[in-house]
Amino acid sequence: xxKQKGDADMRVYGxxxxxxxxxxxxxxxxxxxxIEWIETSVLDGSTRTAGFLELNPAGQVPLLVRDDGxxxxxxxxxxxxxxxxxxxxxxxxxxxxxxxxxxxxxxxxHEPYVAVARFQMHYLGKAQSELEPKIVERGKAALALxxxxxxxxxxxxxxxxxxxxxxxxxxxxxxxxGGFDLADYPALQRWIAxxxxxxxx
Length: 201
Fold this sequence. Notes:
Blueprint: E1 10-14, H1 19-31, E2 35-39, H2 50-55, E3 63-66, E4 71-73, H3 75-82, H4 93-123, H5 133-150, H6 163-172, H7 186-199
Parallel strand pairs: 1-2
Antiparallel strand pairs: 1-3, 3-4
Helix pairs in contact: 1-3, 1-6, 4-5, 4-6, 5-7, 6-7
C-alpha cells in the first residue's frame, strides 16, 4: 500500500516512564515529525526479548527505526538526528558546541544520578537512605550546577529552547521522585516551567 500523507516515517520504541525516551517523543512533537510510538517496558523484560535484541543488541530504549530499516539508539543521538537543520540546534558554531557540552554532561553527570535515584525510589520502592550516598551527593551537585547557571539565563544555551533544555528537563522535572527537593533550586524550577510550557507537557 502506498504511503499516505501524514504516515509516520519512523518507529520509536520507548517506555513512557523513561525521561530518555520522552525527550525523543517531545523533540519529534515540537518539530511536527510523525512517529509511530511503540510502548516498550523496561520493567517487564520487553527490551530483553530476542526480537528486540535483534533490533538493538544493547537491549535499551529509546530506539528509532527508520522506514528504510536503519536503526539508531541513544536518546541524544536520536534527537540530533531528528533536529538536523532545525532551530533546536544553534546555527552559531560556538553555541552549538555549548549545546553539545550540555548533552554530554547530561549523560555523564546528571542522568546517572538524578535518573537512577528516581528509578530506584519511585519504581523499585527503595528509601533514599538505601541509595548509594554518591548517587544522592552527585545528583544534588548536578541540580545545583543547573540552578546556578539558570539564575543568570532563561535557557541553557542562547536565548531560546534548544536540545540542551529538552535533554536536561526530562529528569530534572521529576527529580523529586528521586528524593531531591526542587524547592532548593528556585531558578531550576522556573526553567522547568518555561521548558514544559514550550514543549506543551
